[in-house]
Write a structure and sequence with these properties.
By secondary structure, the protein is α+β, with helices and mostly antiparallel strands. The protein contains 9 helices and 7 strands. The chain has helices spanning 17-33, 88-91, 94-104, 119-127, 136-139, 159-170, 199-219, 230-246, 253-257; strands at 43-47, 55-59, 72-76, 81-83, 112-116, 184-187, 191-196. The structure holds zinc ion.
């Protein structure tokens, strides 16, 4: 079977349930193939269409090539199952997904929540240490402050664990529309919970978080990372936005004269 890439996810975000489910399955396979999971393949993902915020689509099975469209269950924002089956160990953690949608509804445009045990990122969660922003790719997602970690281990998905997730998100309320806050929380002694505007955004965020974690850990052998100054991040975001507005480069001399 062909290797899965990000390319198929990079077009327009899904607008129908069928496309959303296809994107979710593709993303889950890509995440597994890209080495973003522990060997257990343990992960779960929920996603929704912006026009139907009460309906969540869920992949609760191991992320691998065996995933099929039938494996995607449909639940509501309170965790009630509308269609398909939700295994007990996934039902156990649904509360941490639904809490993120409910908490961030008024703040960020959240249409995907993803939970993994990505090994380098989880090392920070195990150490109980917030993860500083040390690579540009993560900074350019608008992350200006360390990714927070929940206070202490608590049973997964339980009231205490979810309360701690909300607490950690609360500490990171957005400063401005240009810096939309940190799209993730490290779950003490457990793993990672992150969210995004659409499937590709969430997968790319996972890639950046795991790469950042890997590089921070590797840099410890050289004295540790130098973190990125939030002010420089704001300048970088403004510059990237100016280039985005100006559009792609073309061969026309007038186009090159108007670069920001
Ligand atoms: Zn987990």
């Amino acid at each position: 079977m062909d290797r899965h890439t990000m390319d198929e996810l990079m077009g327009a975000p899904a607008e129908t349930p069928d496309t959303l489910i296809r994107h979710m399955i593709h993303a889950a396979r890509f995440i597994a193939e890209a080495g973003l999971l522990t060997p257990s393949g343990h992960a779960n993902m929920t996603a929704r269409l912006p026009g139907d915020p009460e309906t969540l689509y869920l992949i609760g099975k191991r992320f691998d090539d065996s995933l099929r469209e039938d494996d995607v269950a449909v639940i509501n924002l309170r965790g009630g199952v509308r269609q398909g089956a939700v295994e007990a160990n996934v039902a156990e953690v649904l509360g941490m997904h639904t809490a993120v949608y409910q908490r961030l509804t008024d703040v960020n445009e959240v249409n995907v929540v993803l939970h993994t045990h990505s090994p380098h990122t989880t090392a920070f969660a195990v150490a109980g240490r917030p993860m500083e922003v040390a690579i540009e790719a993560l900074a350019l997602l608008g992350v200006t402050r360390p990714v927070p970690v929940t206070r202490a281990y608590a049973p997964r998905g339980g009231e205490d664990a979810v309360g701690q997730i909300l607490e950690a998100i609360g500490e990171d309320s957005p400063d401005t529309p240009d810096t939309p806050g940190t799209p993730a929380v490290l779950l003490a002694n457990h793993g990672l919970l992150l969210w995004g505007r659409h499937v590709a955004h969430a997968v790319y965020t996972l890639l950046c978080l795991e790469e950042n974690a890997q590089m921070v850990l590797a840099s410890q052998a050289l004295g540790g990372p130098r973190v990125i100054d939030p002010e420089q991040t704001r300048r970088a975001l403004a510059r990237a936005e100016a280039f985005r507005r100006a559009g792609d480069l073309t061969g026309s001399p007038s186009a090159s004269a108007s670069r920001p």
